[in-house]
């Protein structure tokens, strides 16, 4: 597969377990922001639906299913990128396949997705402890963060990363 042009995104990276793909004249090894935003949109719908179910039909107990999925998806994304192991990343990559990619640096996204996995662990922990109010609060935060990413293109985790780690590549994007 080699180096990717600025106008094309590969479905699988080379090697397949690589976090991102090299892009000539860009941020070195990059990730497709367009696919990342689509992934955030899917996760936004998931968090909104989960909040609704928790309020309207709490007996369905969606956290037992949603939290492990989100944790897995975020860890897979932070470790291997959008494909091939992140289900939401695969969705984002497929639905944006024909849209010109926008390349962003990997490290801020990896940091953001690690924070996302941490929020998933918090939800699961609060579920085990029976702290329903705290679950709703964390889900609300997840909903807000994924909405900001999907709709406005503002990644709070990436912004935090740029504050914590002075990285020139992050400030360029």
Q: What would you say about this model in short?
A:
With 173 residues, this protein is mainly alpha-helical. The chain is 64% helix and 6% strand. It has one domain (21-172).
Keywords:
173 residues, 3 strands, mainly alpha
Share in helix: 55-70%
SS field, number of helical segments? 7
Strand content: 5-15%
**Strand adjacency order, main sheet:** 1-2-3
What is the H-and-E element order? EEHHHEHHHH
**Coarse structural class:** mainly alpha
Which helices and strands, and how do they pair?
Layout: E1 21-23, E2 28-32, H1 33-56, H2 63-80, H3 87-95, E3 103-105, H4 106-129, H5 132-152, H6 156-164, H7 168-172
Antiparallel strand pairs: 1-2, 2-3
Helix pairs in contact: 1-3, 1-5, 2-4, 4-5, 4-6
Describe this structure in words.
By secondary structure, the protein is mainly alpha-helical. It has one domain (21-172). It contains seven helices and three strands. The protein has helices at 33-56, 63-80, 87-95, 106-129, 132-152, 156-164, 168-172; strands spanning 21-23, 28-32, 103-105. Strands 1-2-3 form a three-stranded antiparallel β-sheet. A hairpin with a 4-residue loop joins strand 1 and strand 2 (28-32). Helix 1 (33-56) crosses helix 3 (87-95), helix 2 (63-80) packs antiparallel against helix 4 (106-129) and helix 4 (106-129) packs across helix 6. The longest helix has 24 residues, at 33-56. The protein is elongated. The two termini are 25 Å apart.
